[in-house]
Amino acid sequence: MNFTVAINKFHTSFPIYLDQKWRAVRNLTKNPNTTGPLVNLSDYSFKDNKPVPYASRQLKRIQKHQEYMRKIIKLVGEIDFAVERHNRLLKEKEEQEQKILDSQLKPKGVLPIINQ
């Protein structure tokens, strides 16, 4: 089966034509060209192990992932703060209700003793 499309005599293939069910069963990405060692690792290395410069768009990709990480940490912190605040407000409300119940008028006189 040939999944190429001719546009102005230029043949191209689309990742959408890949077998997506097979990829989903194996927990793979929809487009294999977006992740993996060919994208994330350097193209070469030096014998003396000095660092290699970033590949094209690799620095932008790293910065984008770091920005996502900062945003996730910020939002998780806000959610944790909101949950703690909500629990604290519920506790204060219960304490206020208990305080109101404790301050109500109490009956005067001797209460009858009931034998049990």
Automatic annotation (TrEMBL):
<dbReference type="Pfam" id="PF18699">
    <property type="entry name" value="MRPL52"/>
</dbReference>
<dbReference type="GO" id="GO:0003735">
    <property type="term" value="F:structural constituent of ribosome"/>
</dbReference>
<keyword id="KW-0496">Mitochondrion</keyword>
<comment type="similarity">
    <text>Belongs to the mitochondrion-specific ribosomal protein mL52 family.</text>
</comment>
<keyword id="KW-0687">Ribonucleoprotein</keyword>
<keyword id="KW-0809">Transit peptide</keyword>
<protein>
    <recommendedName>
        <fullName>Large ribosomal subunit protein mL52</fullName>
    </recommendedName>
</protein>
<dbReference type="InterPro" id="IPR034596">
    <property type="entry name" value="Ribosomal_mL52"/>
</dbReference>
<dbReference type="GO" id="GO:0032543">
    <property type="term" value="P:mitochondrial translation"/>
</dbReference>
<dbReference type="GO" id="GO:0005762">
    <property type="term" value="C:mitochondrial large ribosomal subunit"/>
</dbReference>
<feature type="coiled-coil region">
    <location>
        <begin position="79"/>
        <end position="106"/>
    </location>
</feature>
<keyword id="KW-0175">Coiled coil</keyword>
<keyword id="KW-0689">Ribosomal protein</keyword>
